[in-house]
Design brief:
Helices cover 76% and strands 0% of the residues. It is an all-alpha fold and 451 residues long. Bound molecules: phenylalanine.
């Protein structure tokens, strides 16, 4: 057995966990959802959900990890034998997500590269992105590079790799976000976009908006993927879990709100308020934004800074995914960390290739309009994650009892301040909300509702 790895202090742990939480979800999904579902009202609902629902789930995962010192695979079973299957389900999630997340990471490197080398204007052409992703070899080269960067950090270890990289990249990420935000909000015409983004509009506060906010928050805080269990297992027994979680939440929410402030007004100015231009996902980031940058004075530089920022966000999330998968395999097979990491790197490349080719020569392989990447995304995000999260709530609420988690929190701090809130959320509110999110994503797939 190798010795257990640890983050050196609370800041290291908080920044690594925030690195996981801040990802593409903050940058491309949050601004779109906020703009669509009533601006300021959505923000308010999101914040309330983050400090209650997200808070309780994140405390749970970190405490389970720290208490057991195990990866997601064995953590549940070591607290209650018969519940070991929850760990198995939780472990499948990062194993499925890691490869396809790296495909998108590769696209980000490509776009960063073209902007840094002054060719950003090429991306303005509507077909540029589609032509690039449908190529056979080039996207594989970029995803390989992305996986290589991720792997190097994992090989350097929890302390000298993950923690160190997070301590450098996360503050830089905030700085870059602020630079772009200031630039955008002071551009001519931005005011209308800011108003559009922030003005509360209570008529948009529908059940769909509420579920969209809850689903987004859950994904954005990297919950139900075993990640927070893994990072929790590396955290110090002395750290105050409650305040760590508050810090992670603030970091994640701040970046999401800033992302909206840079993207919504920029697109608004560019499109003259056409809401379609804010459509979510790859189209916003890789098709619309390059046009926005082209139309701005100094846009090429801002574009380059923006894609560096996106790369940092994607990289620290991929690192947390790869570390989680490595810890699961080391836990299961007792293999050496380094060898395992290289193996996981190779697995990621091999499994990422089909997702990448799904946009080109393998585009016939699809279910409905879902490409191979979308299928992996759907199984992990829309099916497995809500199930794992519901099971986790039931596990804590009714099997090991909230007291187990409360005791773990209170082992390092005199008082768990939001104890009552925690118990109510984990036993009653979270399972119900999660069941609704699950139902909503199924209805979305069946085409009955649309987010
Ligand atoms: N929390 C990430 C985000 O907001 C999501 C994520 C994290 C996805 C880690 C995969 C791995 O984008």
């Amino acid at each position: 057995m190798e010795t257990k790895h640890h983050f050196s202090n609370k800041i290291g742990f908080v920044l690594a966990a925030a690195g996981s939480a801040v990802g593409l979800g903050n940058l491309w999904r949050f601004p779109y959802l906020a703009a669509k579902y009533g601006g300021g009202t959505f923000l308010l609902v999101y914040i309330i959900l983050a400090v209650t629902f997200g808070f309780a789930l994140m405390i749970t995962e970190i405490a389970i990890g720290r208490r057991t010192g195990k990866s997601a695979l064995h953590a549940f079973g070591s607290l209650h034998k018969k519940s070991g299957f929850i760990g198995v389900l939780a472990s499948i999630v990062p194993i499925l997500i890691l490869p396809y997340y790296c495909v998108i990471g590769g696209w980000v490197i490509k776009f960063m590269w073209i902007f840094l080398t002054g060719q950003g204007n090429a991306a303005v052409n509507n077909n540029y992105f589609g032509e690039f992703t449908s190529k056979t070899v080039e996207p594989v080269f970029w995803l390989f590079l992305f996986i290589l960067f991720t792997l190097i950090v994992i090989l350097l270890g929890v302390n000298k790799g993950i923690e160190k990289v997070s301590k450098i990249l996360m503050p830089l990420l905030i700085l870059l976000s602020l630079i772009i935000t200031v630039f955008v909000v002071t551009s001519p015409g931005a005011w209308d976009g800011i108003v559009y983004y922030l003005k509360p509009n209570f008529s948009e506060l529908t059940i769909t908006a509420f579920l969209a906010a809850a689903g987004q928050m859950f994904y954005s805080m990297s919950l139900a993927m075993g990640i927070m269990i893994t990072y929790g297992s590396y955290s110090s027994k002395k750290d105050d879990i409650e305040s760590s979680v508050r810090n992670i939440e603030i970091f994640d929410t701040l970046v999401a709100i800033l992302a909206g402030l840079m993207i919504v007004p920029a697109v608004f100015v560019f499109s003259g308020g056409d809401q379609e231009a804010l459509s979510k996902g790859p189209t916003l980031m890789f098709v619309t934004l390059p046009k926005v940058f082209e139309s701005m004075a100094g846009g090429q530089i801002i574009g380059a800074i923006f894609f560096v920022l996106v790369l940092f966000a994607a990289l620290t999330s991929a690192i947390s995914l790869m570390e989680t998968v490595v810890s699961i395999i080391v836990d299961k097979f007792g293999t050496g960390r380094k060898k395992t990491a290289v193996g996981v790197g190779i697995y990621s490349v091999i499994m990422a290739i089909p997702s990448s080719l799904g946009f080109g020569i393998w585009s016939d392989i699809s279910i409905g309009d879902k490409t191979i990447l979308d299928i992996f995304d759907f199984i992990s995000n829309s099916i497995l994650m809500p199930i794992v999260a519901i099971l986790t709530c039931v596990f804590v609420g009714y099997i090991i009892k909230p007291k187990t988690i409360i005791d773990e929190v209170e082992s390092s701090t005199p008082r768990f301040k939001s104890k009552t809130l925690y118990v109510v959320v984990i036993k009653y509110i979270a399972p119900i909300l999660l069941a609704l999110i699950f139902l909503a994503s199924i209805l979305e797939v069946l085409g009955i509702i649309k987010f």
